[in-house]
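Hi team,

Filling in the usual template for the complex we talked about on Friday. All components are listed, including any nucleic acid strands or ligand strings, so the model treats them as one assembly.

SUBMITTER: L.P.
PURPOSE: interface mapping
COMPONENTS: two
RESIDUES: 736
SEQUENCES:
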Amino acid sequence: MTVDTKARLAELRERMSAQGVDLVALAPSPHMDWLVGFHPMLCERPCLLLVGPEHEAFLMPALNAEGARESTAIPFYVWSDDVGPRAAFAEALANVGGTAARHVAFDETMRIDFAMLLLDALPGAKRSFTDDTLGYLRMRKDEREYAALKKNALIADRAMQAGFAAIRPGMTESELAAIISDHFSAEGAPMQFAVVATGPNGAFPHHHTGDRKLAEGDAVVMDIGGRTDGFPSDITRMAVVGRAPEGYGEIHSIVERAVQAALKAARPGVLARDVDAAARKVITDAGYGEYFVHRTGHGMGIGGHEPPYITATSDTELAEGMVFSIEPGIYIPGRFGIRLEDIVILRADGPEILSGLSRDVYGAAIPG
Amino acid sequence: MTVDTKARLAELRERMSAQGVDLVALAPSPHMDWLVGFHPMLCERPCLLLVGPEHEAFLMPALNAEGARESTAIPFYVWSDDVGPRAAFAEALANVGGTAARHVAFDETMRIDFAMLLLDALPGAKRSFTDDTLGYLRMRKDEREYAALKKNALIADRAMQAGFAAIRPGMTESELAAIISDHFSAEGAPMQFAVVATGPNGAFPHHHTGDRKLAEGDAVVMDIGGRTDGFPSDITRMAVVGRAPEGYGEIHSIVERAVQAALKAARPGVLARDVDAAARKVITDAGYGEYFVHRTGHGMGIGGHEPPYITATSDTELAEGMVFSIEPGIYIPGRFGIRLEDIVILRADGPEILSGLSRDVYGAAIPG
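RESULT (copied from the run log):
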């Protein structure tokens, strides 16, 4: 990914100044990708990008230095396995003017062993995360980011259809996930995750895809995503094997109405919590409120989950260009779960859905 | 993975007591897998396993609670997206007797936003990582762990051979990695990483596999790993396309001698740094010391990188049952890199190599 690091650093510093943040510390993460267009491989060796009021610096493990040097002109403070990172870190911190920082914003994904370098060096500093700086700046996507997200969404649609076409009673969740993975790979967008949750497993929103065999009458939650061009996809659709379980149709239509209520509520200027409330009201009014155990959605960009989060308490004001999921669900313990998820980009007149795939349940025929 | 959590908690508490640690805090990670046999999906929602002197508790996001309940009887302190984790965390901390903890050992992989809950609650506590507790306990592998690692190593051997067989001038690094990935998948051990670094890219130890096309005369570093049965593999071998580049043979044989020196040095009772020194001396004496830019190896178990680290400064005393890599390398900027990596388990009389694959360079023929 090629990015205009100089322009993005300027945007970041303007925001840091407005928020009273005098040091931003990033780990190899989507924030780093956004700012400099790449990240060194994340391992247990501390690697940090420090951004001070005027200067920036990379704390860089020696074995990544040669490779990373091709991607950025930011000064490196290199440390080797035999010496450790402390001296190089101290020098980097001093050279970005961070030695007396009063307010440090941490990349929220940073490993605590990396962060401890900063916590030890700046014991009295105020600590926060990047919600108000990088998180804020990254929420609104430009048309190039939109194009990459749209491309990924259409690949995910086709991977989902490959999954639908393969469903047979007797196959395992893992086998179905492997077929979806093969499709993602064939389109050059390696699969990043697949929650394939069949029958009662569907009642676990984060089910670990496993060895359960699909059986006639199963509802199947398929929540899948791949990644190419530096951006991800994320979509959830439902299938049933043969005849749907009792009560399925009614609950599917409640979840569908919740999606539509959220789509209708999502407009520039509206608070994220009002979108959550719109979806939740449909489900609560239908008597299933206690079975909708998560927020309505999450933002998506370089990172799979990022601001804006669509929760019951979020005061984030939605704006044009924001990209987020709408994914209400109802989970009936011991029976099945139903979740329908679309990624949308917010336009002036409302959300544009990236996927072209209907949210209807896919009915997999029983062969023979 | 089924584990005897009660026995492992007892082992952990004995070690905590010996080290003066009165609270261990784990994130979804290999440490959690080792202790309780599973981990909930890691996302941005704080999920912690707190272990106090007598009690333990899970801080658990609501949407993972139903699924996780099937895997453990440890008490859950559940929080939902609309309320946030603070109150549940405070209750969990109090109930493991952690409110006045004086020494907290953090899972070093924990996200700083999870860790901040503890840092805010225990501002005066001593902070350390798990090297002396979980890291220490997990270094020595039992025969069940050995069996899983051995199985993975042999799958990786076959994936490597599938890669060797596919090498052709004109294919890209990514295409070669995809063939290796297909092999891992076909054996039920999804690929976790593949550094395929061709020609001058080989000089970057952590090269991002990319679009460079293989050409005649390229040396190819292939560092690959998959995962099944809860354990990983990790192996590096070399290939050349047609005629090897000038000087290749000499440097390959230096790296091979460095591997052999490390294998010879690695005995129970020896310090990890002496194994690093043995490999490094061969390379330094041959005049390439400055081109060996990383440690000699890392431990491997549930985690791909874990103690013991085989570095120039490690005082860890090696013992029977420890599993670690030996992977010296020489990286000539602009030309090529050579790394040879084997995973070994330390036996009473020395290291047993898990792979059955020769460390000789694989010569890929030029077709036609």
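MY TAKE: The CA atoms of residues 135 and 307 of chain A lie 6 Å apart. Chain A has two domains: 5-138, 143-353.

Thanks, L.
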